[in-house]
Design goal:
By secondary structure, this protein is α/β, with parallel strands linked by helices. The chain has 16 helices and 17 strands. The protein has 2 domains: 236 residues, Type I PLP-dependent aspartate aminotransferase-like (Major domain) (Aspartate Aminotransferase, domain 2), CATH 3.40.640.10; 151 residues, Aspartate Aminotransferase, domain 1. Helix content is 44%, strand content 13%. The strands form 5 sheets. A 7-stranded mixed β-sheet has the order 4-12-11-10-9-5-6, sandwiched between helices. A 4-stranded antiparallel β-sheet has the order 13-14-17-16. The longest helix has 38 residues.
Length: 428
């Protein structure tokens, strides 16, 4: 068994060494702060808590309860809402809970299609299918990479979905919630926003403000643009006590038993940090994405939506079919220590062989990079994909840029601990 432990520790060390020299640009990842990691790696991870603070089915939760109450308080403050649930263990779990609360098997849910950027939880083979719901896809305009408002208003009135869900995994531009709210209200649908990718931007006062624009409930991941642990969150403004109870029971006992107490503790720290640093961080994330989009476009890449400034989020969608397609390009970039992922474009039908890649700026921003560094990143992409430079040469250029940006910013105790060195105290 010691050999197994040694094997795992060695691979963890190699992983950190690799990422220390890489440009991590997966749009669904980020870095926790040193302080959040401290409470994450605590005895909370070994404990169990079912139910609500003060009403547990287990004893030994005196301090867990205090932290969870504080976590809920901080979540309500950060998102300016009446109700919050910090128990979901992921955004998909949060989504399952809301599907239980807001819809019954056989009901219809409105959502964006997968090739238009929707998350797999909205697919027939995902959470929506597990709940037994019928899907009605919003008409989508690929020219603006967004929902077609007129056609969708018509669709909502004709189909009369029980739930209207907004939110995407390739989320370039805000959803037109205000423009669709009249039709949603007419048919009596519940409006829900999956903000997994843009939760930190929303909390930072950027992108859009769903809870003020017409949706009742906002779900999301807490480890993307909100740089906390891998966990989930639900925040809402329930119109009635009956609805609050439905949302609450959708999470517990609906889809959560014990709720990963160490992640909840780390999330509390991350949200408190975001109250202080989130506005500056969110603004810089978007500025970096737009600067990167412009620089890539100027170097000949087919970055989507150039006439709209490429993006208003952390994400860029790039058509790399001229460079060999999403699968081959993502692999070549990984070989060059640039970590991103293949992704469907609206015209694609095969998720295994898509035409595009998805690129995120949030982690590089978290490490302190700004617009000038985004231009250098674009140069490195050009070296790898346009100029076909040798992989070791691209490696060297990526490391030359990255070596000065390996400390987490926008957090408490910023600058004290390199992002990819925290593992050392546990692997020596």
């Amino acid at each position: 068994m010691y050999e197994v432990a040694s094997f795992v520790k060695d691979r963890v060390k190699k992983h950190h060494e690799w990422f220390n020299k890489s440009l991590p640009m997966i749009a669904s990842e980020n870095l926790m702060s040193p302080l959040a990691k401290e409470v994450y790696n605590s005895d909370f991870m070994d404990r169990y808590a079912e139910g609500h603070p003060g009403e547990r089915y287990y004893h030994g939760n005196v301090y867990v309860d205090e932290v969870e109450l504080k976590s809920t308080e901080i979540a309500r403050k950060l998102f300016k809402c009446e109700w919050a649930d910090v128990r979901p263990t992921s955004a998909t779990v949060a989504n399952l809970g809301m599907l239980k609360a807001l819809a019954k098997p056989g009901d219809t849910i409105g959502t964006v299609g997968l090739s238009q950027g929707a998350h797999i939880s909205t697919a027939k083979f995902g959470a929506v299918g597990i709940r037994g719901l019928k899907r009605a896809e919003y008409p989508f305009d690929p020219e603006i990479m967004n929902i077609d408002v007129d056609a969708t208003n018509k669709m909502i009135r004709e189909v009369q979905p029980k739930v209207c869900l907004f939110g995407e995994s390739v989320f370039l531009f805000p959803s037109p919630i205000k423009e669709l709210s009249e039709a949603i209200q007419e048919v009596g649908a519940n409006a829900w926003y999956d903000g997994a990718h843009v939760l930190g931007l929303i909390a930072g006062g950027e992108f859009q403000d769903p809870l003020r624009e017409g949706v009742m409930v906002l779900t999301g991941s807490t480890h993307k643009t909100l740089p906390g642990p891998q966990h989930g969150l639900v925040v809402a403004n329930p119109p009635t006590e009956k609805m609050r109870k439905k949302l609450d029971s959708g999470i517990f006992p609906g889809v959560v038993s014990n709720h990963h107490l160490h992640a909840m503790a780390a999330l509390t720290v991350a949200m408190a940090e975001h109250i202080e640093f989130g506005a500056a961080y969110a603004k810089q994330v978007i500025a970096n994405s737009q600067a990167l989009g412009q620089a890539l476009y100027e170097r000949g890449f087919k970055v989507l939506a150039p006439h709209l400034g490429f993006t208003k989020s952390h994400t860029l969608s790039i058509d790399v079919e001229p460079q060999g397609g999403g699968s081959d390009v993502a692999q070549l970039l990984e070989d060059c220590n640039i970590i991103t992922n293949k992704n469907l474009l609206p015209r694609d039908t095969s998720p295994r062989n898509p035409s595009g890649i998805r690129v995120g700026s949030q982690e590089l921003t978290r490490l302190g990079m700004k617009e000038a560094q985004m231009v250098e990143v674009a140069d490195i992409y050009k070296m790898a994909l346009m100029d076909k430079k040798p992989i070791p040469e691209v490696h060297e250029r990526a490391w030359e840029l990255k070596k000065d940006f390996n400390t987490v910013k926008y957090c408490y105790r910023s600058g004290e601990e390199p992002a990819y060195k925290f593992w050392e105290r546990y692997t020596d």
